[in-house]
Amino acid sequence: MNAARIIVLILGIAILLINVALVITTLIVPRSASGLASLPMRVVRATFRRISLLARSYPSKDRILAFSEPVALVVLLAGWLTVAVVGFALINWGIGSPTVDSAFAESGSSVFTLGFTLGNRSGSHLVDFVAAGTGMVLVALQIAYLPTLYGAYNRRETLVTLLESRAGAPAWGPELLARHHLVGLIGSLPDLFAGWERWAADVAESHTSYPSLLYLRSPKAQNSWVISLIAVMDAAAICLAVDPEGAPIEARMCIRMGFTCLRDIALVTRIPFDPDPSPDDQISLPEPEFDAAVTHLREIGYPASRPPEDAWSHFRGWRANYEGIAYALAALLNAPPARWTGPRRLFRGESLEPRRPVDRQPTRGSGPAL
Asked: Residue 258: how many CB atoms within 10 A of its CB?
């Protein structure tokens, strides 16, 4: 065995060890994988983002972006198998395979358990057995990985879809409070905030362990998990700001778990944030927009025990805990350009208003046809 083959053998072993480490950290270890593991996925996401620039409307852009993460997942899973074939091919050549072609043929045959090529050199059968076992384990882990992802995805989207009838699509905090008041459901807000507190805890755990979930878009173009979370937190903050005496304690807990969730995700996505913001910090949301929303709530009779001039400072104090991360995350994920969720360069100034159902009433005196 000459020096060149020894070097190639060592290189093949090193490639396989790195590949195994990336697979373990991505699929098995319950925490975010390294940047090297996500590199091909970032390339795919950037490619789809550039392609979406060719579309003119938000729905068209959303349809293109919806394919981004599924394709990125396929590229990642295929990449692990490809690296395994390359690694074992280098090992086969390093231990004496006569040509590079035969080394790759033997490696591919073993990794994919085809068995049409076997080595006849010293130690080659051991390499073939290890390659076959590696291929089967990789495929088995990938088969188990996708159901785990989509199980967490379905849990996330259930509440997002339910929120559509309560806060519009895309969701908006003031809309949520207005609808609940108009249909006499103010008493259900504690349960709603408690449900979203648990939802935020689930998302914090699952989306930091499997960051691909962050980029999987909702089935409907106007819905988004991050937009929905912002809307619920804004609704809770408005409750606490305008009616501190009547606001449920669940609103406070929902905000705290919500910004804890966002901060955990910010650490994974490397979004900078202030871990201890001051209640007096400035926020990006213009005060006149908040005043207009609160004025509308007061006009429809929403309960308010705090003077309007004091509500803004309290709302700002709550929103300072999550606005910066929420805006950065919405921009990173190219979320729908909903109200109070920050700018999106990809959508060129588009702004989506929450869709409201038409209030249809039966005609007085009409009855069933005979």
From this structure: 28
